[in-house]
Amino acid sequence: MLLSHEEFFLHTVEDLRNKVKEYSPYSILRACGICRQLVVDKNWLLREVNKITGTKISFLILDYDRNVFNINLNLSWITVDPFFGKSKEVDRKEFLETTILGLKKHKYNVEDIIKVASNKMGGVHSDNLHSKDKKHIAFYDFDKAAELDHSATMTALKAICKVVLNTSEKLEAIIKERTPAGGI
């Protein structure tokens, strides 16, 4: 094996940290690809590495009134970044199912947004949209609908990446304390 799971994970977290810090459209899209690998994929990396440490995996997110998306589905957006108010810890399932965007009668949860950014917008793949992808097309049009210059989309993507990074850094610290891979 070229790298142990722990070494691979440590490099991945460092890569995510650098991409979030850079905060360019390219780096944030690539960071979403890393987030997909860490928390969305079938064999999500956080779980695989956590089999070794046995630590509880939780995500600290903003605790907000979910009814905001029932009021105005034409254009609604809220961040998951806990910096902006009262926060709560949730498990992976609740984090991925957290709705943060409502647009043109579509609701987008964290998982939807990570997948669109990763699989359509260039985080991992850059696929052409097909007319049947109305939900994805609406997501592309979010900034235009909100009359913004990519700032809302970038802010939403960065907030998701920061939450994943925060959770990953907890596990990173444990691994660095307990394994020879900690010297990376």
Question: Which helices and strands appear, and what pairs or packs with what?
Answer:
Layout: H1 5-22, H2 25-40, H3 45-53, E1 59-62, H4 68-71, E2 75-77, E3 87-90, H5 92-97, E4 99-103, E5 106-109, H6 110-119, H7 134-140, H8 142-145, H9 151-178
Antiparallel strand pairs: 1-3, 2-4, 4-5
What does this structure look like?
This protein has 184 residues and is mainly α. 55% of the residues lie in helices and 11% in strands. The chain has nine helices and five strands. A three-stranded antiparallel beta sheet has the order 2-4-5. α1 (5-22) runs antiparallel to α2 (25-40) and α2 crosses α9.
The N- to C-terminal Cα distance equals 17 Å
Unreliable runs, pLDDT <50, ≥5 residues? none
Describe the biggest sheet? 3 strands, antiparallel
As a whole number of angstroms, the C-alpha radius of gyration is: 17 Å
Number of helices: 9
The overall strand count is 5
Mean pLDDT, all residues: 80
Question: Reading side by side through the largest sheet, how are the strands ordered?
Answer: 2-4-5
Could you state the order of secondary-structure elements as H and E? HHHEHEEHEEHHHH
In percent, how helical is the residue content?
A: 55-70%
The gross shape turns out to be globular
Structural class: mainly alpha
The percentage of residues in β strands lies in 5-15%
